[in-house]
Write a structure and sequence with these properties.
The chain has 212 residues and is mostly helical. It has seven helices and no strands. The chain has a single domain, classed as Up-down Bundle (Ferritin). The chain is 75% helix and 0% strand. Helix 2 packs parallel to helix 4, helix 2 runs antiparallel to helix 5 and helix 2 packs across helix 7. The longest helix has 31 residues. The protein is globular, with a radius of gyration of 16 Å. The termini are far apart. The protein binds fe (ii) ion. The site of fe (ii) ion has 7 residues, from helix 3 and helix 6.
Length: 212
């Protein structure tokens, strides 16, 4: 199904609201943390967990921006439909992160989130407009990098922080599915140096989110 101009404008308005007011984003799927219990977490550990999830939130928001840029600029109905679907699931991930940050007593968003969002969306939209396949390949590789970055974040979580771990693992599952969707829509896997660069970028964005 192709998106018309009105659909895209409504979607972008909705997106803007969710970026500026993160608490306005209600996940459609229940958080995977709801069926998991934490061990006894000290105040210090909770603070560390909140920072880690906040970093992931900022990165997942940039990935969302990349999906939105693709959806906005793509001319292919198939690519638009896939981007729309993965963007919906990505909002869930963002909602889960928000819930978890609040549970751990953290501040819900970074001041750098809006500018990072705009930058990520613009790069994705420009690439998709110049070359459809390159745009989809970019989204695919970013999603792969996100999967890898989550793997690292899971390793660094405090051992008893099982609820954050459940959220990160569910995000990984989603990302594997999102990466496949982009391949099926016509994207290709980029070579190792590009994948490495995007994994480093994911780490950098998360670091900004953690401390911003
Ligand atoms: Fe994703």
């Amino acid at each position: 199904m192709a998106l018309n101009r009105t659909d895209r404008m409504i979607s972008q308005f909705d997106t803007l609201l969710r970026v500026l007011v993160p608490s306005a984003n209600e996940p459609q799927r229940a958080s995977p943390a709801h069926t998991t219990s934490d061990g006894a977490l000290s105040a210090e550990v909770r603070k560390r967990s909140a920072r880690s999830v906040k970093g992931q939130y900022t990165h997942a928001l940039c990935v969302q921006a990349i999906y939105q840029g693709q959806m906005l600029a793509s001319r292919s109905p198939k690519a638009q439909a896939r981007s729309l679907q993965v963007a919906g699931e990505q909002w869930d991930q963002l909602g889960w992160c928000q819930q978890r940050i609040r549970e751990c007593g953290g501040r819900s968003a970074s001041v750098f989130d809006p500018p990072l969002y705009v930058g990520a969306m613009a790069s994705s939209a420009v690439l998709a407009r110049i070359n459809e396949s390159a745009g989809l390949s970019f989204v695919h590789t970013v999603t792969q990098a996100s999967h890898k970055h989550l793997e690292r974040s899971i390793r660094h979580l405090p051992e008893d922080d099982r609820r954050s771990k459940a959220v990160f693992q569910a995000m990984q599952g989603d990302n594997a599915h999102h990466a496949r969707q982009m391949l099926e829509a016509g994207g290709k896997s980029w070579p190792m140096p590009c994948r490495w660069a995007l994994t480093m970028a994911a780490r950098g964005v998360s670091l900004i989110g953690r401390h911003g």
